[in-house]
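Researcher: Structure prediction, please.
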Amino acid sequence: MSDIRRILLALLFIVPFSSAQEAHIHSAPEKLGKVSFPISCAPAVQEQFDRGVALLHSFAYAAAEAAFQGVAKADPQCAMAHWGMAMTYFHQLWEPPIAPATITVAQSEIEQALQVGTASERERRFINALALIFQNAASVPYRTRALNYEQAMSKIASENRKDVEAQVFYALALLANISCGQDSREAEIMRAAADEEDAVEKLPVTPGPIVPAREQLGYLLLEQHQPALALKAFENTLTNAPGRRGALKGAAQATALSAQK
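Model: Predicted structure follows.
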């Protein structure tokens, strides 16, 4: 399994697709995952920057912003601190991904990152990619900006295959564009995730119980008005996990909708 598909699969388990995701701003968890995102700023701020990125991945946006603010205060010439602060306003997996009231401050932070600058080509590319999300927000539709960001992150990820954070941020960009109703690749990605899940003997460790990817595929297909395919997905889920209430409910819905056609 490729690195990017592993990351996509893990994210799909933790953040199921929904046509009506609510905005989430979580408090800082007691334990954070280990993050290594090397930057060219003062060595003294590296640990706090990594913490900020870890908080981003935990959707603890307010705490992440505070961490990046601390980095900027300790090293005023750290452009990536402003990238981090701008990133806290881009909630890629929720609706809306950018709250209208926060666009101005996010634009200010990304402009600050561009103005401070960095000698690191990798960091410049991260900053320039995120700038595509916030710049010209009044005149360029979010859909276009999100696709431009995804393409920029795709290039970063493909040229830095051993850079885990590059892969993670690309995966998030990809998921942002396959959320319900935005991208025809949604079912394709979910089906691939379900195939990968079926192929592994042990499921990944997550913060809590996971929803089988094939069950998620079934509900996605229901939303796309494909009850016959959805029923097959639910039946396959029940083969691997007999008695799952979600799959039984989905199968009943799919059967009823199929009968109406």
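Model: The mean pLDDT is 82.
Researcher: Thanks, that helps.
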